[in-house]
């Protein structure tokens, strides 16, 4: 993430200010398009965040959040980035399924046991990062994210993926490092634009014949 050099009328950078909580005056800045609150020890986000409806980018990473307010779903203008990584989240509010214009979502390094259901409604996603959680299964609905180009699932508890992964026709990168995989669906070999399949740090997976087909058409397969 690029750190802004200075604040402007529509960009507010409060990165690493030891805030502890978000000052009330921040929620009055309804003109904001970019808001960075990363690395502040923040434990709670006010429902008032829903009033920042011009936000295109929001960074709440590296905090101590255990939940997010329902009003997150009001931020339908979010289109560029939403950083939620390195918190203590175990769920996302259902309202966040309304963020259909969002292109990049990072929920890595949290406490998710499953893929949050609202993510499957974020049909604009181009890049999804869910590394370093405790996710044991990816539902078939993953195939609904037809615009995905990158899917990062490193260091979870996955043993396989659903056949519907083959419906992600725009997918370029699939990162499965560090999962206890025992099988993978051959539909992965049918992904027309796949450029990189990362299977490093996976000792439980037997040889997959179809990876030869992927490599034969130029896809890099890391084992």
Which features characterize this protein?
single chain; 223 residues; mainly beta; Leucine-rich repeat, LRR (right-handed beta-alpha superhelix); 2 domains; disordered N terminus
Short description:
This protein has one helix spanning 210-216, and strands at residues 11-13, 34-36, 57-59, 81-83, 104-106, 127-129, 150-152, 173-175, 196-198, 220-222. The chain is mainly β and 223 residues long.
Fold topology:
Elements: E1 11-13, E2 34-36, E3 57-59, E4 81-83, E5 104-106, E6 127-129, E7 150-152, E8 173-175, E9 196-198, H1 210-216, E10 220-222
Parallel strand pairs: 1-2, 2-3, 3-4, 4-5, 5-6, 6-7, 7-8, 8-9, 9-10
Description:
With 223 residues, the protein is mostly beta strands. The protein folds into two domains: 22-125, Alpha-Beta Horseshoe (Leucine-rich repeat, LRR (right-handed beta-alpha superhelix)), CATH 3.80.10.10; 144-223, Leucine-rich repeat, LRR (right-handed beta-alpha superhelix). Helices cover 3% and strands 13% of the residues. The protein contains one helix and ten strands. The protein has one helix at residues 210-216, and strands at 11-13, 34-36, 57-59, 81-83, 104-106, 127-129, 150-152, 173-175, 196-198, 220-222. It has a ten-stranded parallel sheet with strand order 1-2-3-4-5-6-7-8-9-10, with helices on one face. The longest helix has 7 residues, at 210-216. The model is unreliable at 1-5 (pLDDT under 50).
